[in-house]
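Per your request, structure below.
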């Protein structure tokens, strides 16, 4: 056999037709054999050996032809099969390429497709970049690449870097603050799980913890310029400490580099991104800057050996195109890595069809890492321009939006369409996937859609990270009203197709693809256990939407609901009274049905509204899940309560109803049932009513007995209508409710807090009891408030229907909820109504029993009166007493207890006489007593005996009074009450109840006969009490709080005008909250604390828990917050407390009696940006406008900071509104007659308190163009105008430069005038420091001529150019006078361009040529010669220049023979010959000097005849001056204060006082200056106003011991002589300085910018000149220019001149403190900058000095705390802290001393303690200072310096005994003779000053004794 061929076998080979004979093929015939592709064994022909074939040639040819045809067919079929297989393999390969991730780890194979993240290939450990879509309370939703969504649990949102407590708070409260919607975050996949709710869906759980993202991050891998994410761990003084998720290193971000979100608020745990600025590898700290612009542009540098673990999503890298893929491009980056970019993340939002051609190989891009898969090493990148700039793209589309004109941009074969949707402001890219292109399958997209055509698209979703919308073109998507969840509304009718049926219900799908659930119970009208057969898969049915909560739609198929045409009830707000709608029953209870509506709304239909007859079972008529039609009777939306009725039409007409809720009716019993009584109401309506068993009586036991004897026909006189049930009334016969009808509330508005109201228990649950009043008004008593004993079981304490007294605890008007308390201690009875009803009802029952038994009606009770004596026979003797029978009444029995026998022995059948104590008419039982005090001895005259008996009883009763407290004895203990006797009142018999309304079911307190009790007489014997005396036991109200009864009576007796004792419970800024009585609450308004509101802090001396006396002035009103009432309004005004007359019961109100100009006082209660609101009394309010609060701009800038709630403020009334009880005030008294205005001017909004000449505050509203001036707001609706000439005091160029809109200014009212139309015009001026007001000499150059008569010819004037004409210009001389300048008088030279040389607003100086007063015309000339001739300058006269003077000047002209020098501040020019320029030869003079250069020269010669001055500039001329030394520190201090007057003329200089000047003058290193230079610095330095207190002087002078040591060493004659010589030298030196100072002060100070610039160029390092320059600018109100000068000074002054720079910084502090906005932030910024350039300690001390001078104590204290932490080793800092505490009288000095001793080095302790003791002596408590000195002297007893200082302080205090005792201790020490001599000498000097002769001799004697002892 031939072997089988390896070629594939044709599938149709067996079907080939067989020839009739077998084919024979010879060996030589190869062609035929070759045509057969395969030889099958059955088809192999036989070849007879050596024979021929038996077939003919024709047959063979025919067979061959057939075989060829079949073979060709097989070949074509085989090719087709191979082609299909190749296509299948290619598709399979493509799917594999799309479904799996390819990384750079695969060698030899490049992916065809870009990597894409899908649900199939996402895996744990993958790092993704996403954008936060939602921030919920417990999780965060993140939008991931590819449109995926991930969830982040709260615990995975941040690292556990915080404490557990803070972390718990953060999870529940601050998760939304740490992250925000739209934030780009890097996350890592934690878990991928299948969604159990929907098949095919998976949940991706993510983590944002940096500890996972930065797991392998090490400090060595961090380089400058890297972008890192970090958590904010803590906030410090200078910045924020960061946490990167790894413990090996930390980060720090300075305060000025915090992100922009810090403007709102930053939180611990918040995530931030920053750029690495520097790495401190020693301290392992990374310094970060979070500037968003820098972060977005910072590219990761290429690092050697970087691993894939260090790549983080969101990292910006430089990438290079490597190749183009079918759906994206491949990039290489960071040398070692490759990544892919899919087509949706390219750099173009709308890539066209030929997008591949735009990306050439090696093309460079900036890309961000999109995702990283460590397992496959696959990396995804994005070129999206928004993501590259580190910003998430905002969405401009919403799901469900329809766009008709959407342009087709690109057609992707077998994928979908890219559309350009026309949205604003930019189009949105939208992609339509292949299944969403059409409802029917489309073969090729190119045939149906063309690029550039427009289509209609509907948005299905949005991929927020890529900024790509997902759309659909299906026609079905545009049909129907429901497309998204937002379209679903409760109650709407929808169509849906059933797609699944299960036991829980049916799932249906809408046309839009959304799914909904039809629960099992909503498949039909009835309750079902399995789905209806009607619900078959695929059937389309009609439903109605029930609700759509959390994107889950629930529908119903109940026919009643689907076909309903009634209104839909989907919210409680829609439930209006009378609304008729459909719902379904969800629950049936005994008392009614619960009905559910749409969107979870439910209501309750009580039984009375179900339309059922009495006794009908609800379940027999209605069933659960039944659809019903009902009517809304009442709705309370706040409490989500709806009362329903199944009676669609109201059964009663309320308008015609005669019987109303809460009315009293009478009725006759119709019939009696086992549980109720039906009565016919005696009313015109002929209605029937029902009285249940519980409502027959207050006593539960008697109610059942009363029902048992009730018969039809019985008449009830008084019945209370409690409620209506259909046409029937619900009635009650309870005496407690009937008698308190006026107090019973029927509505929540009638309920008052702290009142006690009768009611009855309607329901009891485990957590409390429900108490009902009238109608359905119900209160709830929680278990904690139901009983005094919280452990009690409520079902054993109360029963349904029980009468109770309830105390109203809280009432919520919004929800209608009433909270009550049933505690006996709060609700005990205050009368005997409870026991009184018992006796009345007992008599009724007894009478009804007699009528039933047909008794003849013998009134046996008439014979048994209380305390009457009756005769009987002993029937039987029992263990508990004796039974007595009466001969006349066989059915009446008597009983005598052993206690009442009082030892009498009784025998059976013996006759006795006993006194009646009590009668039980129902039981026909009489309690008797044999006590002698109850028996009246027999008398011969029976009538006399009877009369005496009645008289004694009457006398005893007359002595008793109501509410009298008496002592009683228990005689008989009954089941419900006690029989008592009153021994003090002739043993009168009284009765007291054992129980109360709220304690009927509780066991009563046990009593025994003979026990003493305390009771209160409440009701005297009367017919309504059956002749009984009724008492109230004190113990009845004991409960837990034994004094509740007393408090209850007190509460009911409180009224307006009463004086009470109240206890403070809370102190607020504007009121005291107090309590008094029995849980009564009230308040004392701040205006009720003092008379006239004069106290600054009325509540400062009160404390919580303090008891005070107050008077009730008003009953409580409603609180503003709607949460209840204030309680009672009280007053503690002294004038009210001392009044003896009682006030009326009406509310006390001060009324509104304010008048114009009246001075009123009040307290701030609200601060607005424009107004301060004050309360003048409880009813009257006042307000103060911002511009009225002050006239100083600095105070107006910090307007809201100057006031606080509770601040006392006084003012004067300028307007009022009596209706609103509101007045407007101003701080200063207004004028009596403001101006001649009509009365209705105030209606025009005119501030009537303004008058001409007054100084007011204003706010620049507008800067008018040109020379228009300023528009100033001076009142809320009133503006004034400032003329251009009234802007500054002096004439300056560009006077508007220092002003800006919104700036506060101080102005003066010049004129108020009324226009013809009635409008007011107010002229203002900003020129406040005029010569007349400040006492300076008049300067005509700065005056403004208001009157033309003041002008005269040749007068020099100044003005501003107003306008320009062809003939000249007009200038403004003042606000009322303009002058003209002709063209010929404009200038001495030719004027080429008039507009450029004389622009509008230019300051010019001229001379008056002519004045015409009548026509008011003035002509002025601006020629220089004219102006100079009239204007008197102030030059230095030639004779004032003396020989030897040193002058300063500038080079005016340079000649070959010398320099011409213009002497400063004069018009004198001197010559310095070339020979006098230098001690050395001067070559080229032109190269050595320049014109304008500042020089110093010595006056060599003054030729007054020829007016010539010769100068010299040789250095040798100045050697003598330089050799002089600086004066001593002490003399300098004394001179410093003497020269303050030199600067007083500058009002702005106090703003720039710099304490650094003190330090500069005290620095001994700068001790080599000339006397003249020293005098100049001292004469011109501004006054510092910094008091050098004892602390600073001590610190500067060094140790205390050093000063004392100097004193002890100065006792020799030689040393004294040296001191005298030094002192004389200092005095001579001081005289020379003073002379130089006087000469300097005579010189004129700079007055223009140019002069200051000249001085600055001459002395660029002089801080004094710079500060003077700043002060000059401030005098011109140019604050910005002053700031720029400060910045120039800081840049110009040499870096070595630290003291000079510090002076500028401190001046900058003062500038910002005064003019900064806000000042505190401005000063802080300057302070932070100063710390970087100067000594931090000096900067801190300078800022502290400024705070102390400006009295900003709070900021000073905060700064001191920081200084103590930063400079804890500085003794000076701690002493400043102690000094501050002592000045503020703070008691925390000792704790600061202890902290300082722990921080300071050991060698500084003596200095610190001694100086602290000095401060205590001078500023604090001397005893503390004394103890400090004693403590330090115990350790160092031989330190005479300490003894000296200690003695000096005691001498200053002046206690002679203490001083002498201290001296005695000092001289008893064993010290060296030199020190002892010092102490004896000091002692002797003291005694010479204060002692007598004996004392002096005594000291001298002790000194001699010491000398003798020492010598011996």
């Amino acid at each position: 056999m031939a072997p089988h061929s390896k070629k594939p076998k044709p599938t149709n080979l067996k079907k080939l037709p067989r020839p009739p004979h077998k084919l024979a093929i010879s060996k030589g015939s190869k062609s035929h054999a070759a045509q057969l592709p395969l030889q099958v064994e059955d088809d192999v022909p036989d070849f007879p050996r050596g024979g021929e074939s038996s077939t003919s040639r024709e047959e063979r040819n025919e067979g061959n032809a057939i075989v060829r045809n079949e073979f060709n067919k097989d070949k074509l079929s085989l090719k087709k099969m191979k082609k299909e297989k190749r296509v299948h393999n290619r598709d399979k390969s493509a799917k594999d390429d799309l479904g799996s991730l390819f990384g750079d780890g695969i060698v030899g194979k490049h992916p065809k497709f870009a990597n894409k993240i899908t649900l199939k290939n996402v895996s744990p450990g993958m790092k993704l970049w996403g954008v936060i879509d939602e921030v919920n309370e417990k999780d965060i939703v993140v939008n991931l690449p590819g449109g995926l969504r991930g969830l982040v649990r709260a615990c995975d949102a941040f690292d556990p870097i915080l404490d557990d407590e803070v972390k718990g708070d953060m999870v529940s409260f601050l998760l939304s603050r740490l992250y925000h919607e739209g934030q780009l975050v890097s996350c890592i996949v934690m878990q991928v799980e299948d969604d159990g709710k929907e098949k095919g869906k998976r949940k991706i759980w993510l983590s944002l913890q940096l500890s996972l993202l930065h797991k392998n991050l090490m400090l060595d891998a961090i380089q400058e310029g890297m972008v890192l994410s970090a958590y904010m761990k803590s906030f410090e003084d200078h910045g924020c400490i960061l946490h990167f998720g790894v413990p090996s290193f930390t980060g720090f971000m300075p305060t000025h580099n915090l992100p922009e979100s810090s403007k709102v608020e930053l939180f611990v745990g918040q995530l931030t991104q920053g750029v690495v600025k520097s790495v401190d590898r020693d301290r392992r700290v990374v310094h970060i800057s979070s500037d968003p612009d820098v972060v977005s542009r910072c590219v990761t540098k290429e690092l050697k050996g970087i691993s894939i673990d260090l790549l983080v999503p969101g990292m910006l890298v430089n990438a290079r195109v490597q190749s183009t893929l079918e759906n994206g491009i491949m990039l290489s980056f960071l040398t070692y890595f490759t990544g892919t970019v899919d087509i949706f993340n390219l750099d173009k939002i709308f890539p066209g069809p030929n997008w591949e051609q735009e990306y050439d190989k090696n093309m460079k891009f900036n890309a961000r890492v999109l995702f990283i898969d460590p397992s496959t090493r696959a990396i995804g990148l994005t070129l999206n321009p928004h993501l590259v700039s580190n910003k998430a793209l905002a969405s401009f589309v919403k799901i469900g939006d329809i766009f008709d004109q959407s342009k087709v941009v690109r057609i992707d074969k077998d994928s979908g369409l890219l559309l350009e949707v026309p949205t604003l402001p930019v189009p949105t890219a939208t992609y339509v996937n292949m299944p969403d292109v059409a409802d029917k399958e489309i073969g090729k997209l190119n045939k149906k859609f063309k690029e550039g055509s427009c289509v209609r698209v509907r948005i299905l979703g949005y991929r927020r990270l890529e900024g790509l919308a997902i759309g659909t073109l299906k026609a079905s998507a545009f049909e129907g009203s429901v497309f998204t969840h937002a379209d679903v509304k409760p109650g709407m009718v929808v169509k849906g197709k059933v797609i699944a049926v299960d036991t829980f219900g049916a799932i249906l799908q809408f046309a839009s693809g959304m799914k909904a659930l039809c629960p099992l119970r909503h498949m039909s009208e009835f309750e079902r256990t399995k789905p209806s057969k009607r619900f078959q898969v695929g059937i389309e049915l009609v439903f109605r939407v029930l609700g759509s909560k959390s994107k889950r739609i629930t529908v119903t198929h109940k026919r009643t609901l689907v076909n309903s045409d009634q209104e839909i009830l989907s919210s409680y707000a829609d439930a209006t009274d009378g609304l008729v709608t459909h719902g379904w029953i969800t629950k049936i209870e005994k008392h009614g049905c619960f009905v559910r509506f749409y969107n979870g709304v439910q209501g309750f239909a009580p039984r009375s509204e179900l339309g059922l007859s009495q006794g009908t079972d609800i379940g027999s008529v209605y069933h659960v899940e039944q659809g019903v039609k009902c009517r809304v009777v009442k709705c309370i939306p706040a409490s989500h309560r709806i009362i329903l009725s199944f009676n669609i039409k109201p059964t009663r007409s309320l308008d015609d109803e005669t019987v109303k809720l809460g009315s009293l009716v009478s009725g006759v019993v119709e019939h009696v049932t086992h549980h109720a009584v039906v009565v016919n109401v005696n009313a015109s309506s002929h209605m029937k009513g029902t009285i249940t068993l519980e409502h027959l009586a207050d006593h539960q036991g008697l109610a059942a007995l009363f029902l048992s004897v009730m018969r039809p026909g019985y008449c009830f006189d008084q019945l209370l209508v409690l409620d209506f049930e259909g046409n029937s009334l619900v009635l009650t016969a309870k005496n407690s409710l009937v008698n308190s009808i006026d107090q019973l509330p029927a509505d929540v508005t009638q309920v008052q807090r702290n009142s006690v109201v009768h009611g009855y228990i309607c329901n009891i649950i485990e957590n409390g009891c429900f108490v009902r009043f009238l109608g359905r008004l119900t209160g709830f008593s929680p278990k904690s408030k139901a009983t005094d004993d919280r452990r009690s079981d409520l079902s054993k304490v109360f029963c349904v229907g029980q009468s109770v007294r309830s105390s109203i605890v809280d009432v919520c008007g919004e929800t209608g909820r009433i909270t009550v308390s049933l505690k006996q201690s709060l609700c005990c009875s205050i009368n005997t109504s409870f026991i009184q009803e018992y006796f009345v009802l007992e008599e009724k029952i007894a009478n009804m029993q007699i009528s039933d038994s047909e008794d003849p009606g013998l009134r046996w009770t008439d014979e048994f009166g209380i305390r009457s004596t009756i005769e009987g026979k002993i029937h039987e003797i029992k263990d508990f007493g004796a039974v007595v029978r009466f001969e006349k009444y066989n059915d009446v029995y008597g009983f005598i207890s052993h206690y009442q026998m009082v030892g009498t022995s009784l025998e059976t059948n013996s006759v006795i006489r006993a006194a009646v104590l009590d009668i039980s008419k129902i039981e026909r039982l009489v309690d008797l007593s044999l006590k002698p005090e109850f028996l009246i001895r027999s008398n011969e005259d029976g009538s006399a005996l009877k009369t005496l008996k009645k008289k004694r009883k009457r006398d005893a009763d007359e002595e008793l009074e109501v509410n009298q407290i008496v002592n009683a004895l228990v005689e008989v203990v009954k089941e419900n009450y006690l029989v008592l006797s009153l021994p003090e009142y002739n043993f009168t018999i009284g009765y007291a109840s054992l129980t109360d309304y709220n304690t009927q079911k509780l066991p009563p307190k046990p009593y025994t006969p003979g026990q003493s009790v305390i009771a209160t007489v409440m009701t005297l014997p009367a017919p309504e009490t059956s002749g009984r005396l009724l008492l109230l036991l004190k113990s009845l109200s004991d409960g837990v709080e034994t004094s509740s009864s007393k408090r209850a009576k007190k509460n009911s007796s409180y009224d307006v005008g009463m004086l009470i004792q109240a206890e403070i419970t809370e102190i607020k800024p504007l009121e005291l909250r107090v309590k008094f009585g029995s849980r009564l609450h009230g308040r004392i308004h701040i205006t009720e604390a003092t008379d006239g509101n004069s106290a600054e802090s009325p509540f400062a001396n009160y404390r919580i828990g303090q008891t005070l006396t107050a008077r009730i002035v008003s009953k409580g009103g409603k609180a503003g917050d709607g949460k209840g009432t204030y309680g009672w309004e009280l007053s503690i005004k002294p004038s009210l407390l001392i009044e003896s007359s009682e006030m009326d019961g009406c509310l006390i109100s001060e009324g509104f009696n304010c008048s114009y100009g009246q001075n009123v006082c009040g307290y701030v209660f609200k601060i607005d940006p424009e107004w301060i609101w004050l309360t003048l009394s409880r009813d009257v309010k006042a307000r103060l406008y911002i511009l009225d609060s002050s006239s100083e701009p600095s105070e107006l800038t910090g307007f809201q900071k100057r006031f606080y709630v509770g601040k006392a403020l006084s003012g004067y009334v300028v307007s009022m509104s009596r209706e609103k009880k509101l007045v407007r005030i101003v701080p200063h008294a207004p004028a009596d007659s403001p101006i001649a205005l009509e009365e209705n001017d105030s209606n025009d909004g005119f501030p009537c308190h303004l008058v001409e000449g007054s100084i007011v505050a204003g706010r620049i509203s507008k800067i008018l163009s040109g020379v228009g001036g300023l528009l100033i707001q001076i009142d809320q609706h009133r503006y004034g105008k400032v003329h251009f000439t009234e802007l500054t005091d002096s004439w300056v160029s560009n006077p508007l430069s220092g002003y800006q809109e919104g700036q506060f200014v101080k102005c003066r009212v010049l004129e108020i005038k009324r226009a013809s139309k009635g409008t007011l015009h107010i002229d203002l001026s900003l020129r406040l420091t005029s010569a007349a007001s400040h006492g300076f000499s008049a300067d005509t150059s700065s005056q403004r001529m208001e009157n033309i008569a003041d002008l005269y010819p040749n007068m020099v004037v100044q003005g501003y150019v107003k306008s320009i004409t062809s003939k000249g210009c007009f200038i403004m001389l003042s606000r009322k006078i303009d002058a003209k300048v002709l063209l010929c008088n404009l200038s001495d030279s030719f004027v080429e361009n008039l507009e450029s040389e004389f622009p509008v607003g230019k300051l010019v100086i001229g001379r008056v040529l002519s004045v015409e007063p009548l026509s008011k015309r003035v002509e002025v000339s601006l020629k220089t010669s004219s102006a100079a001739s009239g204007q008197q300058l102030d030059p230095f006269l030639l004779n004032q220049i003396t020989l030897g003077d040193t002058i300063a000047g500038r080079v005016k002209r340079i000649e070959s023979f010398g320099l011409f020098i213009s002497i400063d501040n004069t018009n004198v020019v001197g010559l310095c010959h070339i020979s006098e320029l230098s001690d050395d030869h001067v070559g080229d003079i032109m190269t050595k000097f320049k014109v304008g250069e500042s020089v110093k020269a010595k006056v060599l010669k003054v030729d007054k005849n020829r007016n010539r001055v010769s100068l010299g500039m040789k250095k040798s001329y100045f050697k003598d001056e330089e050799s002089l030394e600086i004066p001593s520190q002490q003399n300098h201090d004394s001179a410093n204060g003497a020269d303050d007057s030199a600067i007083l003329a500058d009002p702005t200089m106090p703003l720039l006082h710099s304490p650094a000047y003190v330090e500069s003058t005290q620095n001994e290193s700068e001790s080599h200056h000339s006397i003249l230079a020293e005098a100049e610095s001292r004469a011109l330095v501004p006054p510092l106003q910094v008091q050098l207190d004892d602390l600073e002087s001590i610190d500067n002078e060094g140790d205390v011991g050093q000063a004392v040591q100097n004193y002890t060493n100065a006792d020799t004659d030689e040393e004294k002589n040296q001191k005298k010589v030094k002192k004389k030298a200092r005095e001579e030196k001081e005289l020379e300085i003073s002379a130089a100072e006087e000469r300097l002060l005579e010189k004129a100070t700079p007055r223009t910018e140019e002069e200051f610039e000249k001085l600055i160029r001459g002395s660029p390092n002089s801080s004094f000149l710079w500060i003077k320059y700043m002060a000059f600018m401030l005098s011109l109100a140019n604050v910005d220019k002053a700031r720029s000068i400060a910045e120039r000074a800081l840049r110009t002054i040499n870096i070595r001149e630290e003291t000079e720079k510090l002076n500028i910084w401190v001046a900058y502090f003062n500038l910002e403190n005064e003019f900064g906005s806000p000042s505190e932030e401005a000063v802080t910024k300057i302070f932070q900058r100063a710390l970087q350039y100067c000594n931090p300690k000096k900067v801190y001390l300078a800022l502290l000095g400024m705070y102390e001078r400006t009295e900003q104590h709070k900021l000073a204290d905060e700064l001191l705390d920081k200084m103590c932490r930063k400079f804890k080793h500085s003794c000076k800092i701690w002493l400043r802290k102690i000094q501050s505490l002592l000045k503020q009288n703070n008691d925390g000095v000792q704790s600061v001393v202890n902290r300082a001793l722990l921080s300071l080095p050991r060698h500084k302790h003596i200095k610190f303690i001694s100086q602290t003791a000095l401060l205590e002596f001078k500023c604090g408590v001397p005893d503390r200072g004394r103890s400090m000195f004693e403590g330090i002297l115990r350790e160092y007893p031989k330190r005479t310096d300490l003894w000296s200082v200690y003695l000096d302080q005691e001498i200053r205090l002046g206690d002679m005994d203490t001083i002498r005792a201290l001296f005695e201790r000092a001289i008893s020490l064993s010290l060296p003779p030199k020190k002892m001599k010092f102490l004896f000498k000091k002692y002797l000097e003291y005694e010479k000053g204060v002692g007598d002769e004996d004392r002096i001799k005594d000291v001298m004697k002790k000194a001699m004794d010491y000398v003798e002892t020492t010598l011996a």
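The radius of gyration is 54 Å.

Regards,
D.
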